[in-house]
Write a structure and sequence with these properties.
The structure is a single chain. The chain is an alpha/beta fold. The protein folds into 2 domains: 137 residues, no CATH class; 157 residues, Trna Endonuclease, Chain: A, domain 1. Helices cover 47% and strands 10% of the residues. It contains 12 helices and 7 strands. The chain has a 5-stranded mixed β-sheet with strand order 3-4-5-6-7, sandwiched between helices. Strands 1-2 form a two-stranded parallel sheet. Strand 6, helix 11 and strand 7 form a beta-alpha-beta unit. It is globular. The N and C termini lie far apart (91 Å). 29% of the residues are buried.
Length: 318
């Protein structure tokens, strides 16, 4: 077998980051998920500014996989171009030039309409998801799967059980953060003109701490306070995953029950008053759960309900 370095040609930056990107993209492939250039840049560099330069590294990665596939065909078969899982945020597709890795020239793809391009990309993604030899590909290149220093489930499950069974409220600080976010969605990068809602009941019996819903979007926000233990943060990530599925099912139920069908993809965000450990954040990002952490409620913030009550009290006759 060739030396690993011989598979990654090109500039040192592109070659190095092609190697760095592969284990991450394999983790996406194994969970049947795509990503974006921006999100991959965040994962690799904690910064969005490398989204465009990463295209060069992904091209190098594609060439490396083609070379490995040719030299190890009996063992690895045809390795699909996993770099095509990295897509433009607006189109949901990789760039047209990248489709050269599935046999189409840029001149050909430039003449195709959206439906044709979507069909090609969907088929390519399906082949990537169905490929079962990614661990062998990593091993052949001397690379290791993505691992994270996460808390052992056996250690945190008892704590999660205690938190889930808690019958008292989550405290004044948690309540204030929840009320602050419902009135200030921009603080967690949600574009919503009206005020959101709190404690929204779902058909599953779950309640969303905060919900922003209109005809164009439905965003759930799971709120954790500044003193939340790591076990509760882990729980919050899984709550967001559950809410996304339940919300999508509820939209379908509403449509079948006679409501107007809405082309909405529900999302759920974990909003924390505390800081979230880097490894836990990476785990959340691998599941496409966005975390906003270190959120602070201004000392002079007064929720609308309290302000209205104060106004009514001051206006009442003695």
């Amino acid at each position: 077998m060739e030396r690993v370095s011989n598979y990654f040609h090109g500039s040192t930056w592109a070659a190095t980051n092609a190697e760095e990107a592969l284990p991450i993209l394999v983790s996406f492939a194994e969970s049947n998920r795509k990503t974006t250039y921006t999100d991959l840049s965040r994962l690799m560099f904690r910064d969005e500014k490398y989204a465009h330069p990463l295209m060069s590294a992904l091209g190098r990665l594609g060439k490396a996989l083609e070379s490995l596939s040719k030299s190890e065909t009996k063992k690895l078969g045809t390795i699909p171009p996993v770099q095509l899982l990295v897509c433009n945020q607006k189109t949901g597709r990789p760039g047209n030039l990248a489709l050269g890795f599935v046999g189409f020239t840029k001149a050909e793809t430039d003449r195709m309409n959206k439906q044709q391009l979507d069909t090609i990309v969907c088929a390519a993604h399906q082949r990537i998801f169905e490929y079962r030899k990614w661990p062998h590909v990593l091993k052949a290149l001397g690379l290791r799967p993505v691992t994270l220093n996460l808390p052992n489930p056996r250690n945190i499950l008892p704590m999660i059980n205690n938190i889930a069974r808690r019958t008292t409220g989550e405290g004044e600080e948690h309540e204030n953060l929840k009320l602050f976010l419902v009135e200030n969605p921009a603080k967690i990068e949600i574009r919503f003109k009206a005020r959101g809602d709190t404690e929204v009941l779902l058909l599953s019996g779950d309640r969303l701490n905060v919900s922003f819903r209109d005809d164009e979007q439905w965003v759930a926000v799971e709120v954790k306070g500044k003193n939340s233990p790591e076990a509760d943060l882990v729980r919050g990530i899984f709550q967001c995953l559950k809410y996304r599925i339940v919300m999508a099912a509820q939209l379908r139920h509403e449509s079948f029950a006679g409501g107007e069908p809405l082309q909405i993809v529900p999302t759920a965000i974990l909003a924390c008053g505390c800081l979230v450990p880097a490894e836990l954040r990476r785990f959340a990002e691998s599941l496409d759960v966005r975390i906003e952490s270190g959120l602070i409620v201004p000392k002079d913030f007064v929720p609308v309900e309290k302000a209205l009550r104060r106004g009514a009290a001051s206006a009442a006759p003695n």
